């Protein structure tokens, strides 16, 4: 049996015998876990290098201890059984809640929208969370993970309306009964949750999937959830955070509702209409002209020059703003695009911009500077809005700059937040002549009424400007512009009565609360802080039917809100009994508090619903209900929040703000952010590009299993773990295929170990000694593996876990340790000390390897665990241990940490690596066929005088001569410390390597502390004079076709002697 080969390459078997084709194939795969090679060899025939049959060896194959296991090379291809998987996941989740005695660990699930199929980004998110949770289960923590769904809001309502339209019902939401919309939206959300639940189960997400049990999931449409949300709203009202105001908000004409900043997407290539216009200024209103002795010719008009990219807002113009500290020029020019291009006029603009304006407007040749004034000297002047004919003031505003435009800013408080703020301070009217559909109202004038402001309305304004000779220039302007994130249509800013949360008093506390939050990656801290610092208020009202109603009554006569603690508490009480649909079903009288009944006033119910970010942002209340002691002790309710980077503007922010408003602290102790999935060209996934990777297809296969095989869920999970998920990640068919190959290697590593274990070793491993130096070194490396993997899991750096798993499996185990010990595993006597030592070591390695793998490839880990455990004899106390997750996380074993051993093996592995290079040189020159045909000499110079005896060095290395032969996979290995010996043998070497330096901490004598010595080492290779053993194929026999001494003893013991 060829059980030694090319060291350092994962084990290469050139010739093989077995009891049949299946055993031959098995041995090859076992010896080379990282390669899959199959061929058939006739049983009981040994092939020598000359392909000669040696009949006398036919009995020896039966004396070899070949690997034996029913652990399959590949997982069984059985059709997934969702119900069985659901039951298994639920059983394990409930088991850990009942048995794990560690402190609770809460990973709070950010709710996805219940409006469509889950995609690869959802798979990434949920698998990342599940890896964290499963690791914490192994650490003995009592994990609380409750899957959640965001069920309200525009995305679901729009989809419900589309379904109604498909059934022949009008899709105009404002024309439908709100209860009809709500009924269909609820049905859509619940059906979607059922579908998404199936996907989550197929990804092996650990949770209580028995949704009939309490606290097994949360849905923002549930009555209990809505009532907790309303209680948060009530508390914020009591603390003075909630108010109503008519002010500009982002308004989506396509959705007919207000939007928060988090619901916007900015399109970089939006094209607006850029307009330079002139508004006539009353010369007599400008006292600064006289002070600067600026004389203007009588009869020549003076204009304020403005620039805007929203000409549709000009009908709402209430002022022109200047900066009080800027210098403004008054110049005379003829503008070609006016009605009378040869007629001169005076203009006012910021002095730094005059030259560029002259060039842009084509009036540079005629431009003549008359004088300059400070912006403050223009304030108080008046001009006329040519669209309305009304006089308006020139005002001061700090946000005006001379970077672009004209330095004179058209101000419409009804259509811009900065305009609104300065207008509110100065008492300017907040005019917004635009309706919910984005069309001009009658207030804009008969020529504009009914026209869409972003389409024909914009053009109509330009025509009016042209007719009244106010248009200086009009051109397309490409810039970044906000769009509705769901309808993908542009939005406008429009003043409407809305409900707001005042964030100014929360900001400082919220930012301070983040100081105690562990951000991963740390760079996300600045991003979230920036979003919070830049937000003064939060528009929480929406004009849609599908949502939680804002509990406010309005006086029919005055339209004033009834908004008291008593009224809100009464409304919440009614809704707690009847559900939020009652807001659209029950008469208003049911919601009027007793103390307000009979006061002579009539009330109506408000029809605004809450922003969905307020919905999901109060989800922490569920965790607070389950763990009230956390709030009481000033601790975050959740240990971890984990979502995509877009949630800094969304759920992260809304959760933090509502929690700080109520409890003054962050709801999360650790905030983890992941990037987005891209194709191999760095593009976003898109059906139109055909680059979508469907997680369902990865797991269960596509319609054509040849091109899209069913890889299974562990491949999907391993891909997630392999990524640097804090950045954008690449996935493609090729990436998935490579990941599948990596998983196969991990599987075959475990298969090799299982094949070389037996029940005696597994059941008695705790008492059986590990005596071999290579085995003790393997346990030392196992400690390092556990140490590094634990640190990586704690850090949430799963790509580092993946790297440790592949390095340990491929580099250390398969290419090093397995290659060395396979001879003793197959050819030693069953109960030999060396073989048992390696088996015990394999048992310990497999045990820890399985648990390190478990949070990521949970199905493979459980499969390994079942086969490993089946080798033992579980006691009655172990009957409840049905999964690897019912066992504890591995600890560092102090007995395996031997610093002297580590130093010795650092030297040995360095020497071995160099020796393998020299052996390869000998093979290349055909001086030897395989390393087993060679003898290796290692000349060591620089040893202390009392270390000249090679046996003393072997004792320090804890290596016998036979151990060295195994390590170097050679016929003989000799340590040479005398120069004369080396020189006498060097001339007959078939290959000699260059000298190299190593450091060794050697005791000055065996009782004194170590001192570091720099040693010079040189390796030589010679042809062996020994013969190949027909049983183990080692070159250790004195005669041809004769068993080596070791095999002679073993065969005599096991079969009565066939030597």
From TrEMBL:
Domain of life: Eukaryota
Keywords associated with the record: Aminoacyl-tRNA synthetase, ATP-binding, Ligase, Nucleotide-binding, Protein biosynthesis
Compartments, record wording: Cytoplasm; Mitochondrion
Methionyl/Valyl/Leucyl/Isoleucyl-tRNA synthetase anticodon-binding domain: residues covered: 775-936
Cellular component terms (Gene Ontology): mitochondrion
GO biological process: isoleucyl-tRNA aminoacylation; mitochondrial translation
Domain Aminoacyl-tRNA synthetase class Ia: 93-731
Amino-acid biosynthesis is among the record's keywords: no
An example Gene Ontology molecular-function term: isoleucine-tRNA ligase activity
Xref: Pfam families: Anticodon_1, tRNA-synt_1
Name the UniProt record assigns to this protein: Isoleucine--tRNA ligase, mitochondrial
Species classification: Eukaryota, Fungi, Fungi incertae sedis, Zoopagomycota, Kickxellomycotina
